[in-house]
Amino acid sequence: MDKTILPLHVADLTFSVGGANLIDGISFALEAGPRTIVLGPNGAGKSLLLRLCHGLIKPSSGEVTWKGANGSDPARHQAMVFQRPVMLRRTVSANVEYALGLRGISHSDRREKIDEVLSRTGLQKFARTPARVLSFGEQQKLALARAWALNPQVLFLDEPTASLDPAGTRAVEQIIAAIHKGGTKIVMTTHDLGQARRLGDEILFLHQGKLIEKTEAQSFFERPASNLGQAFLNGDLLW
Length: 239
Known about the structure:
The protein has 239 residues and is α/β, with parallel strands linked by helices. It is built from eight helices and nine strands. Helix 2 (92-102) packs across helix 3 (107-120) and helix 2 (92-102) runs parallel beside helix 4.
């Protein structure tokens, strides 16, 4: 990969709507390597935090800084996959090619990359199929393939398996693991504690827009440092 844009530094990040702080003074740093899982009850600000870090929306105050960018555009080295995949009105192959074209990948290099990611995600047989007729699970795999083709240094995933059955969830988790194995930093939200245990190396635990804990995953699940964290694991913290 290119020179890393990590670590990511978030400093006193706040996002307000109508006078209410939906993200409230959050600060942390994310290093290359560990898979980061963002946990918290409904309305904690998990998805919003990912969008702020990815640059899709601007904070009301505070900073999101990619310390390793060294003048390059950090947006070129990150990607994001959403809970509901966005499919273009074109074939599976053309969906991936469009993303590569936006990144300035030459035509001569696109075909090999398309074949590679479709093969790795089990979608090669659908290459000429219109993306919007795929099943929901296949569309989510295509969204991951499209992001993977860009070889991102950081991949933000917003509850990518929330609407999938167990088989679809397992397939997506395997793809995520393969992307991470290739050197991509994973930052992911989920409501599935089992999934967080399987995929997570470190946890960001949010509640009501505040960062309550940032810790190793094993420590969080075995002995959370906060009463709120314990209540969440017990199923007693719904909001």
